[in-house]
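Extended Data, panel c. Modelled sequence:
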Amino acid sequence: MPDLLSALRTHPGLRRPKNEDAVGGVGTPWGGVFVVADGMGGHRTGEVASRLAVEAILEVLSQKEPSPKALLEAFEEANRRIYQEAQRPENRGMGTTATCLLLDLPYALIAHVGDSRAYLFRKGVLKQLTEDHSWVAERVRQGLLTVEEARTHRWRNVITNALGSFPEARVDLLGLKVEPGDIFLLCTDGLYGVLEDRTLQEVLRNYPPEEAAERLVALANEWGGPDNISVAVVRVPETLPERTPPYALPLEAAGGEPVHLKLGEVPEELPTQVLEPKPRPRVGWRDVLLILLWVVVVAYILLGYFRGP
């Protein structure tokens, strides 16, 4: 896909001794796969967890036809590898966020765990696609914290979902049909936790992916660089193929806006917005007898009550 432009950058920031983030991407005949991950669990274990996640996801998806099921299988494999490593005493507490963009043009699938993010810049407007799996983000969704309060809350770094924390992964999956010139931004909290959305939007509006990625990292460091910073900027071509994917895509009927699906199990395919009507329950002869018996019992009780002794 020669017209697909992308740029990957990662930087330790100015206050961390080591970079526990990881970022990766690979072009494919159908588009490409891009991943950012933010490791946790200490200097060594966080670095290992994020690297394992990116390697596993890229490895699985580069060997499979693109589909929602393949994307979830990639996250399951990453979770398995990290969880296995985390069973060693020296690696206890190991885990990582992971946000992956799978482009199967003209469609995009995104899988997400943790508080790294995926954004879509379309027609001059930046929109956050993923929902953070964090303590403060859940309180914001519940209306208990404002966005401004969440930015400075002492528990803003508490993650509620991560790859490697449990034997089975809990993954958010969403999909949408892309438009010519769409730009996707994947990033860790070292970027969006420092720069406001309007700053991200202006950089993506005014610079191509390579320069945009460089400027975003530089701006985060200018504002203190308190955390590791990882960025993937991907711009889709102006000319897109016209085709229907062989899998069901979770698309909203009006406008093609992404629909979030929280999945605990891997389905054969994802539901679309066209829902089949549920069949009416069949009433058998046993059900009829039970209903008649209930009516007789109630009638007998009422008759005795009104007749008196």
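The two ends are 90 Å apart (CA to CA). This feature is highlighted in the accompanying rendering.
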